[in-house]
Specification:
homodimer; 252 residues; mainly alpha; Four Helix Bundle (Hemerythrin (Met), subunit A); 3-stranded antiparallel β-sheet; 3 strands; disordered C terminus; DNA-binding
Chain lengths: 252, 252
DNA sequence: ATTGCCAACTGGTCAGACCAGTTTTTAACC
DNA sequence: GGTTAAAAACTGGTCTGACCAGTTGGCAAT
């Protein structure tokens, strides 16, 4: 292991062990270089390594600081390195939607096939709740509706995977509702799509349900693409702020 | 945003978009510096950033390489409570296959659409390797073939999720090849299916590729179902034994 | 007391040199 | 010719010293 790796390791351990608190200023590069007996280039490489890992952040002219990392959060899934890798890349959002299109479609198909009377009741309840609330201010009904459908597929793996994808979307972008719903006609389209999915599942038409769900996801993705190309700023999340319970839906 | 960040971002996007395949060698620091018109120090800082993020790894005297993304999938971690819940339940296997059918299909479709000449070369190489080896004794060629296809989809999320599912299957059941291949006609069918997938992707027929891949997964599932209903004992794994590198494929 | 400038921080980038591993080429030997 | 060992030409790792570019704070002129 090279010197720079060793430096970065020592700094990281210092930070994680609490020797340096979040937000605290790290000694200047020149100071570190002198104190550690290495060149400044090495210090910079070590800092960049930690920077890529999200442990420190650097401001030109000010200095380097310990990033306010997720503190006591119990979210075990979000801390995966993959998250840091994916998050922040715009394309990731569309990759995510590309996969979700398939899985949401499959979930709707299976729900139409296998939903029990209890499932139907829960879906209906969630659907009713959907109409009353403004999705912009409250994302929970939206989550609930999709969740009820997925659970009605009676495929635990599918539930698990889609949930993981939902978490990834929360990390990647705070979009969908916040970006889409403000437009009146969009809200209308989305409600219409929800209704189509609902009716297809209730009528026990698997293929119709699948197509409706896929079209729904695709519509969201296309709408985002349009907004982005039009220069409308997407509300992106600060990445580290643990506000995963924000009032914004990653569905629609 | 500084130059080094920009460089690291560009490189990372190149990798994520598939411009650089996992394991592939990255141009030398001096070459990158010249080609990008920056100093070597900047290139090194950018590489360290990616290194800290786990995207690249560097060997002294050899060069820098794209880290095989998703090496240890933590998202669906082995230690996750869900694993203990899922593993051992026979139904889980079919739930898994149900999801995989969709995603493998999508992967094949995207591969047919987006495979670059490099991707095609890698897929062809993996396909050739497939014919020479007996899948029963060596599962790696089989893994390699499917892996090459998924990576040609140029959707990192898809790669990630399918890899996680593969790991789950390894945990759940040591099946497929061990159970299926002993039957001569099955081995023949599977080889035929592989060939269909391969040709469709090479011919750039997305929908054909998708259907072939889905039929392939479905065939495996159905075959397992048949075997199980006929009382043929499935070789199930001891659940906790970390022999994930066993010589048995979870594909076909 | 306010304003404005300048000096002393901070990180960002560059150039060139040298050390340390790895690979390839070359040349000597059998 | 074929084998082997030295040497040259790669690769990344580290150092030095310089200069540019933002930020901050103090000191002087108003």
């Amino acid at each position: 292991m090279g010197i720079s790796q060793e430096i970065s390791y020592r700094l990281e351990r210092l930070i994680l062990d609490g020797g340096l608190a979040p937000g605290q200023k790290i000694p200047s590069e020149r100071q570190l270089a002198n104190r550690l007996g290495v060149s400044r280039a090495i210090v910079r490489e070590a800092l960049h390594e930690l920077q890529g890992r999200g442990v420190v952040e650097t401001l030109h002219g000010k200095g380097s600081f310990v990033a306010s990392i997720v503190p006591t959060t119990e979210d075990l899934d979000d801390r995966s390195p993959l998250m840091h890798l994916f998050a922040g890349h715009p394309r990731t959002l569309y990759d995510l939607l590309e996969v979700r299109e398939q899985l949401e479609g499959q979930a709707a198909l299976l729900a139409a096939q296998r939903a029990t009377s209890i499932d139907r009741h829960r879906i209906t309840k969630a659907f009713r709740l959907l109409g009353n609330t403004d999705p912009l201010t409250n994302a929970k009904p939206d989550h609930g509706f999709h969740q009820a459908i997925v659970e009605a597929s009676h495929n635990p793996i599918l539930v698990h995977v889609l949930n993981a994808l939902k978490n990834m979307m929360l990390l990647t972008v705070q979009a969908s509702v916040a970006n889409l719903n403000p437009r009146e006609e969009m809200r209308h389209s989305i409600m219409k799509q929800h209704k189509q999915i609902y009716q297809a599942i209730m009528a026990g038409k698997p293929d119709t349900a699948r197509k409706a769900a896929m079209a729904h996801v695709r519509f969201v993705g296309d709408s985002m693409r349009n907004l982005e190309s039009q220069g409308t700023k997407m509300i992106r999340m600060p990445l580290v702020t643990g506000t995963s319970e924000a009032g914004v839906s990653t569905y629609t």
